[in-house]
Amino acid sequence: MNGIHIHQVGSDSASTLTSARFFLHAQFFAPSSSRPVARPLRWVLAKNRKGPDALLHFVVCSVVSIVSSQRSFTHDLALKGIVMRKAVCSWSLRPENTDDLVVQVQGTGVNLIQLALDPIRRANNAFEELRVIQSAGISVVSGMMEMIGEDYSTFDSIRKTGGVRPDETWEMNVESAKSNALLAHQVGLSLVTFHAGFIPHDDTDPERGQMLERLSTIADIFSAQGCDIALETGQETADTLVEVLSDLGREDVGVNFDPANMILYGMGDPIQALDRLAPWVKQIHIKDALGADSPGVWGTEVPAGDGAVEWDNFFELLSSHSLDVDLVIEREAGEERVRDVRVASDRIDQWLSKRDRGMA
User: Cβ(280)–Cβ(319) under 8 Å?
Assistant: First the structure.
C-alpha cells in the first residue's frame, strides 16, 4: 500500500482531530449504504491519549455541523425537485495534481466527486491528498479503479486489454484491487466501479466462465472491506450483463449505468438497456454520445444533452423504477471539460424539474 495508513494518525491531538473530522465528513456525505462512523471514531478515540474530553467535544460539534450542512444540502435539492445527488468524475477534469483537481471541481459548481483511486493510493502521502480534497469542501461519493494494462487507443485494443479478461495482467489486478479496496475502506466508501472487460455473449464460452470467477474474486476482496462494486455498462449488451449478474447472484455486485457507452460501443439502445438493468443499478454516469456509422468503431462522445440519449425518457424511467442513485457527470472528450460539466449539471436540474412537474 506504499505506506498508506490513513487511520493511523498518531497520538497527538491535532492529527487525531483532523482524522476525526475527515472520517465524520466522509461518512455523513457517503451513500446511505455505507458503514457507520462508530468503528473509525472508536479507533481515533483509542489513539487519543492526551485529550479525550477535547476530542469528544470536537466530535459532537463536528457531528452537529455536518448534519446541519447535510440537511441544508438535502433541503436545497428538494426545493429544486432533485432527489439524487450530482457529482463529477475526477478523471474527467484531467487534473495535474490534487490542488488542480480542487480548483477545477470548484469551477464546475459541483461539490461531490467520484474519485479515481489509483492516483491517490500511489501518492507519497495519501492522507494529505485526501485532506486537501476534504478541506476544500469536496466530498467523495464513490471510487473508480483502473485495470492495469487497459489500452483505449482503439476499439480492438481495449477489447484485448480491458478489464479482468487478459491473463497476463490478472495477478497484478488482484493486488491492485486489494490496495484499492483498503483505500476505499479507509476513505469510507461503499461503492467502487470499474470495467469488467468484454464479456463473451455465449454463455458456453469458457472465457466467460473464467471472467465470472475473476469478478467474484474481486467482489470478495471489496466485500471484505465493506464495499460494493459496480460494472461499467457498454462493453456487452444489456441481455448479456443481466445473465452475468444473475449468474453471479450477489447483492454487492451491480452496474454503473453509462448510457453513452451503450451508444459508443454499439451495444444497444440505452433506454431499453436501463429498463433491463434497473434492478442492479448502483450509480449512473451522465454522459452522451452519437453512434458510429459502422460497427466495430467508436461512436462520438458529445456534451450531455447534445447526443442520442433521450434524457426525458431516461429520467422518467428512473422514476418508474424508483431508482435513487447518484448522478455522476463524466466527460472524456473535448477541451472545455469544466464548462461541459457545468452545462450537464444545469441540464440535470432541468430534466429532473421537468420530470417532477410531469409527476405532479
Answer: no
Is the CB of residue 27 less than 8 Å from the CB of residue 37?
yes
236, 198 in Cβ contact below 8 A? yes
Cβ contact 4:126 at 8 Å: yes
Q: What is the pLDDT of residues 220-277, one digit of tens each?
A: 999 999 999 999 999 999 999 999 999 999 999 999 999 999 999 999 999 999 999 9
Amino acid at 97: N
Q: What is the pTM of this model?
A: 0.79
Beta-bridge mates of residue 140: 113
300-302 and 288-290 beta bridge pairing? antiparallel
Helix, strand, or coil (residue 345): helix
Query: From CA 179, how far away is CA 232, in angstroms rounded?
Result: 20
Cβ-based burial of 156 (10 A; exposed 0-12, middle 13-18, buried ≥19): exposed
The C-alpha angle with vertex 130 and arms to 337 and 342, in degrees rounded to 5, equals: 20
Residue type, 32: S
Mean pLDDT of 156-174: 93
How far, in Å, CA of 280 to CA of 114, rounded? 19
The H or E element that residue 255 is part of is strand 253-257
